[in-house]
Amino acid sequence: MKSRQAGLTLLLRVTIVAALVSATASLPAQVQLHPPVRTPQGLRLEWTDPGPGSVHTVQTRDRLTGGIWLLPEAPENWPIAQTRWTDPNPSAPARFYRVLTLPAVQRGHLLNAEYRTNLTTVQIAILLALAGVNLTPQYAVQVYKLTYETIGPWGEPTRATAALVLPVGPGPWPLLGYQHGTILRTNDAPSAASITGELGIGVVFASQGYVTVLPDYLGLGDSPGLHPYHHARSEATAGVDALRAARAWCTQLGVALNDRLFLAGYSQGGHATMALHREIEQFHLQEFNLTASAPMAGAYDLSETTANDFLSGRPQPNPYYFAYLLAAYQEVYRLTNSLADLLAPPYDTLLPPLFHGHVGGGSINAVMPNNPLLILKPEILQAFRTEPDHPLRLALRQNDVHRWRPTRPMRLYHCSGDQDVVFANALAALSHFHQQGATQVELVEPLPGGNHATCVYPSLLQALQWFETLRR
User: Fold this and answer.
1) Number of helices (H) and strands (E), helices first, in the chain?
2) Are residues 142 and 232 in the same domain?
3) Same domain, 124 and 97
4) Which of 46, 51, 345, 399 could form a disulfide with 84 if both were Cys (CB 3.0 to 4.6 A apart)?
5) May I ask which residue range the UniProt record assigns to the signal sequence (predicted)?
6) Distance CA 186, CA 82 (A)
């Protein structure tokens, strides 16, 4: 993970002022962290300016041993160009800070656009009929693959890809971001242009008159590295930058857009959609007029509802979800020295080689126990059960996506018979939003008692019907 740790690193403990500085060849300027200053707004950190072209991300942890580096809880559009930041709530007895200094990137800059295919309304109608979906396509579509600049989990420069599906007609069109579900193989990502996969959903939305953007996320498609599965911030930043790249390509093509933006996604895409909605409301409403979002069947409450479901020991329909999450969080947060160090035999040798982007979920399920927690070493599992500040619990909480207050319309779609992503996730999100006064958020069960698979089409179709009432 050298690329994710590149740059200058500063370390500070609040109770004892001590700084550790290291530099790389790409950023040779010496950076020094000044003593922190307590202000009425909180604890202010400042550091020297390494020069133009640099940005900074602050990380925190409340203990040096047995903890992990996290983004601060206070919302901030990391990385920042400023060389100061204030922690509004430094409540821990001892808190450590680390400042990563990184090269700046032109987020959303379109690097390449490649025409992939087109489909007529007749072809789309055939695909819908084969899927058993009663919907009439209104427009033919064109499909493009976009490559664009974005940032990694800590703000480091990287690139990502997305599919863009355009309705053929005069417009102007609303923009729609669709976030896909769980994918392990890099070539199953939407930009790979398999109409029978997730891209097909984008084709359907575009056939109804939506310019549809389907980000691959980091680590899928042509993006390097392991996909940071259920990492909320990178799901959101990759989504924002995909929307930017799509608008740039539409401008070059002369495709007219109106001022409406819709978001939707199913399963992991539900989690990513809620993360993207939050990101836009917190930082980008001057850039995007977010009209409404439809998160569907997502694991919004990872640290409690989802963790408790895993800890219940019930057989999981797809135990590979947990292994994928563990591999991703090990890559991002460095829970321990290596993924194998978390795993009991024989999983310590069986599982790590499978997360390289070429093995599907079915193959990983085949070597997994139905209770996925049994892949953990007994002492790791016991610590996860009993320690509220266990590194994995901290990582899960950092990636909960329901602990905020949305102001724009949102409908959650979920079926109560879902055993892959339990329905209680939607109930937890709805309860928290309503407690925060976000009473415009609604929960819809599109197919009463439906499971994770049978709920897909009813959710998508009902979300589309809702969007149609808001698009003009």
Assistant:
1) 12, 16
2) yes
3) no
4) 46
5) 1-29
6) 36
pTM above 0.85, yes or no: yes
Distances, alpha carbon 69 to alpha carbons 255, 395, 398, 472, in Å: 43, 9, 11, 45
CB-based contact 160:217 (threshold 8 Å): yes
What is the Cα–Cα distance from 152 to 294, expressed in whole angstroms? 25
Provide the residue count of the chain: 472
Residue 313, sorted as left (phi over 0), alpha (psi -120 to 50) or beta, turns out to be left
- Closest alpha carbon to 124 in 113, 140, 108: 140
Residue 292's H or E segment, with its range, is strand 290-296
Same domain for 296 and 306, yes or no, is no
| Alpha-helix residue ranges (DSSP H) falling in 301-373 | 307-311, 320-333, 347-350, 361-365
119 and 222 share one domain? yes
pLDDT band at 286 (very low <50, low <70, confident <90, very high): very high
Q: Which residues contact residue 436 at a Cβ distance below 8 angstroms, ignoring those fewer than 6 apart? A: 404, 405
Summarised one tens digit per residue, pLDDT across range 428-452 is: 999 999 999 999 999 999 999 999 9
Domain boundary among 380, 398, 416: 398
Place 5 in a pLDDT band, splitting at 50, 70 and 90: very low
Question: Residue 190: left (phi > 0), alpha (psi -120 to 50), or beta?
Answer: alpha
H or E stretch covering 454: none
Q: Which H or E run contains 357?
A: none
User: Into how many domains does the chain fold?
Assistant: 3
For tokens 């950023």, the residue is 27
